[in-house]
Amino acid sequence: MSRFEPLADHSSIGAGVELSAWQTIRRGAQISPELIRGLAGTVMLGVLSTLGRVLVPFVIQRTVDEGILGAAGPDASRVALWVGVALAGVVVTALSSYAVNLRLFTASESGLATLRVQAFRHIHDLSMLTQSTERRGSLVSRVTSDVDTISMFVQFGGLMLVVSSGQILLATGLMLTYSPLLAGVVWACFIPLFFLIRRFQGMVGRAFTRVRERVGAMLGAISEAVVGAATIRAYGIEERTAARIDAAVEAHRREAVGAQIRAVVAFTAGQFVSGLTTAVVLVVGTILAARGELTVGAVLAFLFLVNLFTMPVQQATEILNEMQNAVAGWRRVIGIMDTPADVADPGERGVELPRGPIDVAFEKVSYAYPGGELVLHDVDLQIAPRSRIAVVGETGSGKSTLAKLLTRLMDPTHGRVLVDGVDLREVRFSSLRARVVLVPQEGFLFDANLLDNIRFGRPEASDDEVMLTLTELGLDEWVQGLPLGLATSVGQRGESLSAGERQLVAIARAYLADPDLLVLDEATSAVDPSLEVRLQRALDSLTRGRTSITIAHRLSTAEAADEVVVVDAGLIVERGPHRELVTAGGVYAALHESWAAQQATG
Ligand SMILES: Nc1ncnc2c1ncn2[C@@H]1O[C@H](COP(=O)(O)OP(=O)(O)OP(=O)(O)O)[C@@H](O)[C@H]1O
Ligand SMILES: [Mg+2]
User: Fold this and answer.
1) How many CA atoms lie within 13 A of 284 on its CB side?
2) Which of 177, 234, 404, 507 has the largest CB neighbor count within 10 A?
């Protein structure tokens, strides 16, 4: 069903060896063992529930032939006996279907929960490489929708498969004992229906795929209009936007009606054939009964047995489709899970870094983003413990890439990055994350209050520790000036704070985490002068006594650093204290001049 494949471009993920349907199911059951735990019992219960269902037509035959039309006239005690049996059958069916449903739902929910947890955790590891939110987002939606198709099948389809095929088999068995001829008539009617419905189902499935695509397009148009409301108003393109939404809504409506019509036609065709079969059975059965080849009770039983065919045949094709989708979804999720993480935690074998000032070394480090050209070329860089380094350079020169390599969000294509003489690849994640902290260019704020956002730096920190952090960074005054102080909500992604204020929160968070190596990617956006002073002071306190590497976009940061490293087109072209580089008249001097000019005019 899932022709809608927004991920076709991420061909590198999950594009390994294609598993067969059977291998896929086996691997899926391996990942979620809960799915097959107790499956045999569930199947037994399923058979029991169909047995009860087939029992009813059988009881009708016996009641009529022995109880009402018996040789010795009507026999009330016989009727009562068979009614009792029917009652027992109905109760058994009800209880066992309840148990089957319960078992299937609990097994599949816990099995799929395991699958979701593992898949999302793996995506998290995978996405460390490029830190591309977009890719991460589409992988998440892929896993979400794929797991949904699996769950639809294992909960509903799987059950129906057992129940329906059991029902058809048992009903056929009973029919054969009554009259092979009439049983043949029933099959002759239903086989063409199966193929007819299969055709219809294909049409219906494709139609609903188109509906889903339209839903996607519609939601896209609507959310773009909501998110981009400011831009839309600014450029006066409300009408064009509204027209786009109207068109998307209309296209969706048309496809939805079309799909529903096809579904109704398919359903009605099933009903029609089943009615027709009943009529044929009635005619042929009556003729056979008149000739004495069939009892009246058996004819009645046949009429009920025909009904047991209708639902399963209509559902069978749907279940087959669902099964194909489930296998395809499973295959894709397994594909993602079998893609090795780019950055692997050495775990137990890894090195635990001792606390204390860190020294850093880049040894002939080159880096290329997947499928791209080298953006860093043979970078060699030594950074002494406790030194404050500012990294400057044009936009796109490779500064953030340097920062990501240093915090091991990705590994170098060539060369090594060493901390305290240890290759980053050999450092345990737990140790690395505790000792090395990255303050990213656009730090993420969660939709919570200020206090909780800062506390993400060290989740076990108390309120007082957060307060102390703010005092030490000279930010207490700023917080007190906010409407609700620390309880002020930052809004989604921190949208109720200014860019500079968001940076302050990120700094406080990093200070609370208390790392030994701090990698700080300064926000590019301009900050108003009063905040600028505050930011500078906070940064000063944050970097004091630690090794820090700040990607500087502001003159004051570069001036305050012990040394400035100048990156140009993936190469380190200059290094030295601010004063020296300014007088040297190279790349930095030019950059400094343009910054100074900006400051003078801004
Ligand atoms: N996720 C990515 N995938 C592919 N290429 C990337 C990715 N991120 C960055 N690049 C490319 O790598 C090069 C260096 O980018 P980087 O982000 O390191 O620059 P930067 O110096 O931090 O720039 P800025 O000052 O604008 O932040 C650029 O050419 C950029 O296009
Ligand atoms: Mg950058």
Assistant:
1) 16
2) 507
